[in-house]
Model the fold of this input.
Amino acid sequence: MSIMNKKRTRNEVRAEMLEKGQADNVKSTAFSRSRDQKQCPFGEYGTCCKLCALGPCRINPGKSDSMLGICGADADTIAARNFARMIAAGTAAHSDHGRQVTRMFLATARGELQGYEITDNRKLSMVAGLYGIQTDGKSKEKIAEEIGVKALAEFGQQDGELTFLKRAPKKRQELWRELEIAPRGIDREVVELMHRTGMGTDQDYHNLMLQASRCALADGWGGAMIATELQDILFNTPGDLGDTRQIVSGEVDLGVLKDDEVNIVMHGHEPLLSEVLVQASKDPKLQELAKSKGANGINLAGICCTANEVLVRHGIPVAGNYSQQEIAILTGAVDVMAVDVQCIMEGLMNVAQCYHTKVITTSSKAKLPNTIHIELSEGNPVETAKEIIRIAIENYSHRGKVNIPSEKTDAVVGFSHEFINYMMGGTYRQSYRPLNSNIIDGRILGVAGVVGCDRPYSRDLDVHSELVKELIANDVLVVQTGCSALSCAMEGLMVPEAAYEYAGPGLREVCEALGIPPVLHAGSCVDNSRILIALSEMVNIGRTQSGDIDHRVYLGDDISDLPVAGCCPDWVHEKAIAIGHYFVASGVGTFFGPSLQVTNAPGFREYLYSGIAESLGGKWGFGATAGEMAGLIIDHIKEKRSALGLEEQKERVLYDMEMRRKLEVR
Done:
């Protein structure tokens, strides 16, 4: 594959499409609304409190050190409550996604649901082992049923610990127990955090952030991880096709839409809808129906995290990320946009009414005014998918003028934890040893997880791609999820050739040896849990089966020891704050931009940026620009390398046969 030399930047394409929208009588888009909307400085800086009827209270410590809310709450308390509530809301979003997947998983195992099946038997056995389920003599459906029952119970569990916490390094588990922040049950932690942040309850931000940590961990090591693992069992782990493993490739950007085919854009987060749409679109009868209406076929494309789900598993093309959902309709080529939950703009209908596009909602949790609602059936979802496709086919002939930008870019994707493990050692010697070894040798400086959303603001430069280019130029291997991944894919950073153009010499050498991009696409926003498992494996590989240290690949006893960082260059949804904090609570230095709503709370801000590391090992950081964030990440990784004694690059060790025989296979 080659990186396409684009004649136009993404901003130029966006400007052209917005001009088309104006000509087509589109009254507003997210871009025009963001230009016209003036941000509230109190809300932006974290010191607006509207949690009771005494206010809203707006605190500006810069004007007076004694400024307090009517109840006496100071800026630090107000900002901490607001921050913690975002963690609760983000955890609720991911976990409700996980709950819905678990319910469908359980119904599939019981034979109550058509269209899905148990696909990944390897992961089925692994997850069964974590839940303590015996598999001998049982059908895969019976094993899946027992997993589903236990997983579903963890959402309402009141005591004990979540099962997947045991996947973290032992030292990290001990720390969580010592701090009493090991999550007991997913819903319990959300409810308790909402209670504590209510008026007149928890007013010590140190104490409040302990529960916020517990809640965030219930997301990363609970709801989100359950969603990822059960989705993999149902739909296949990215890069894993039954008995074979292979890289997945696809195309990204508006150019994936077809002017001579029925275009169905899938948007949202739960792959329960998109998976059956992929399956139903192959139906010969529907293909024939499309041709009878003058179309050459049925073209599926994704937006946002639904796009990531079908891209990493099937190579289904992606029309864009969050900020491009309205722009896709502006092309005039979208016959149906089918949506489920999360990150769906109400403004879609303002745009769709100017074209022939039909917007179809499919979840009772997420309805939009003036749309078609077709509930995703919990008995036969494939029939729901076929109905959506038939509507799109019938709508094809109603198109007006179509203008599809030619821009699209190749992307190599599907780098799940399991595939990365396999990629570095093959079927029989799969291991994170080569990754740790290259970090110790200095060819890879460290690893950064770069995730997050994208805002519909006009920028000269894309903050995600500019940050990632800076990191890989400094030999930092980047792993991505969500809309951040799509931004970098559209910039051509997810093909192996990108290493030659953008990566530093050490990272380039590793990418060349493995045939991989310098930026690895790991999935959707719930799939940040894959990164947690990868980090745990980097720790675990440093010890032998007897527990002794293997200094050839040892990078510490805990995630907090690793030369790694997390980063969200841009964020929109509260899920991003929940993700950021479960990385911090797992021991990772995590850096956000271009804003973080704690600016006017000096005590709380300093606690997040520094003090919290004393207890959790991870901390928050903030950078207003891509360059600032890149500098913070690189400095953080270098500090971790220094603590491990890895300041100097070591010479490559060429193993002879005797040395290879001594290697332990784990």
